């Protein structure tokens, strides 16, 4: 997946390097050092945080139930920390991590790659310029077949897209799923709803597709840049890492805590709606 030729004239960062790696799977830890020569394998998180300046917790497919225990040692030391989604498994778990970070004055970031796509950045520039009016609708699509378990992990991505473009003040969620296709409606008090389409079909693999409807323009995009998915995927990974690095250097958190908590609540409200015949579930019911 990692192509060292995709540098964006920025990589490797001149003043940043990976020095230590911890994984409960010892073989996975050893494999990591093969891909990144010079990295030391830490025996424990507690050992690692005494020797680093910042912590990145990545989780490809877990539910986040172990994230607090993994990030707490670094947060206790006030280290800038990235915590992958789902950040805390449940709204209560997410709130626990957010409050713990504030308590120890540790800069904390959680995010989705969707937030850092080339197209997302362009959509935000169009929104802020105001030339085409405000955003009225967002349809955040995700390829791959919907499953209930998949919603809890990968549904976070399109939820992040809606929250990034339309804001975190979601009031309620209605989710309908049939076979491997899912549609979720995210309602707001003062604007039109956002929409998630999990299971959106595509003739080619692009992973996700987003439509942003301004008053005077529709802007749609995928992660691909000039039709190249992998180049675009490297870009969003680069931008996420660069955003975290900037937080580590400045101490300024790039993602408001209310957005992080809102995404977790949206996912759990959607799951509850799915279990209750797609009724509109208010976020306050799961917070």
Summarize model confidence as the mean pLDDT: 96
User: What does the overall shape look like?
Assistant: globular
Give me the secondary-structure category.
alpha/beta
CA-based gyration radius: 19 Å
CATH class of the domain at 114-236 and 262-285: Alpha Beta
Distance between the termini: 37 Å
Percent of residues in helices comes to: 25-40%
- Structure summary, number of beta strands: 12
| Low-confidence spans | none
| Superfamily (CATH H level) name of the domain at 114-236 and 262-285 | Dihydrodipicolinate Reductase, domain 2
CATH-defined fold name of the domain at 114-236 and 262-285: Dihydrodipicolinate Reductase, domain 2
Biggest sheet record: 7 strands, mixed
Q: Give the strand content.
A: 15-25%
- In the sheet with the most strands, the strands line up as 11-10-6-9-8-7-12
> Helical region count?
9
Helix-strand sequence: EHEHEHEHEHEHHEEEEEHHE
- What is the architecture of the domain at 114-236 and 262-285 at the second tier of CATH? 2-Layer Sandwich
Structural topology:
Layout: E1 20-21, H1 26-35, E2 40-41, H2 45-49, E3 55-57, H3 67-76, E4 81-83, H4 91-103, E5 108-109, H5 118-129, E6 135-142, H6 148-154, H7 156-166, E7 170-178, E8 181-188, E9 194-198, E10 208-214, E11 218-221, H8 229-250, H9 257-275, E12 281-282
Parallel strand pairs: 1-2, 3-4, 4-5, 6-9
Antiparallel strand pairs: 6-10, 7-8, 7-12, 8-9, 10-11
């Amino acid at each position: 997946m990692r192509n060292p030729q995709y540098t964006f004239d920025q990589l490797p960062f001149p003043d940043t390097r990976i020095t230590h790696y911890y994984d409960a799977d010892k073989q996975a830890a050893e494999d990591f050092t093969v891909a990144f020569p010079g990295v030391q394998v830490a025996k424990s998180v507690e050992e690692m945080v005494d020797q680093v300046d910042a912590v990145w917790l990545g989780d490809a497919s877990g539910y986040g139930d172990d994230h607090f225990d993994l990030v707490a040692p670094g947060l206790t030391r006030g280290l800038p920390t990235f915590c992958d989604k789902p950040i805390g498994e449940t709204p209560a778990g997410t709130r626990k991590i957010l409050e713990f970070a504030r308590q120890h004055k540790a800069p904390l970031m959680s995010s989705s790659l969707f937030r850092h796509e080339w197209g997302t950045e362009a959509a935000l520039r169009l929104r802020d310029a105001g030339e085409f009016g405000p955003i009225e609708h967002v349809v955040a699509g995700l390829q791959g077949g919907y499953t209930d378990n998949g919603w809890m992990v990968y549904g976070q991505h399109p939820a992040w897209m809606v929250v990034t473009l339309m804001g975190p003040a979601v009031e309620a969620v209605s989710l309908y799923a049939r076979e491997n296709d899912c549609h979720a409606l995210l309602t707001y008090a003062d604007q039109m709803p956002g929409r998630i389409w999990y299971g959106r079909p595509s003739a080619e693999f692009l992973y996700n597709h987003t439509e942003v409807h301004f008053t005077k323009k529709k802007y749609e995009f995928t992660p691909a840049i000039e039709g190249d998915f992998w180049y675009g995927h490297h870009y969003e990974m680069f931008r996420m890492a660069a955003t975290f690095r900037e937080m580590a250097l400045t101490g300024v958190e790039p993602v408001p805590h209310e957005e992080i908590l809102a995404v977790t609540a949206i996912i759990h409200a959607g799951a509850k709606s799915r279990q209750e015949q797609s009724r509109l579930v208010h976020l306050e019911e799961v917070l």
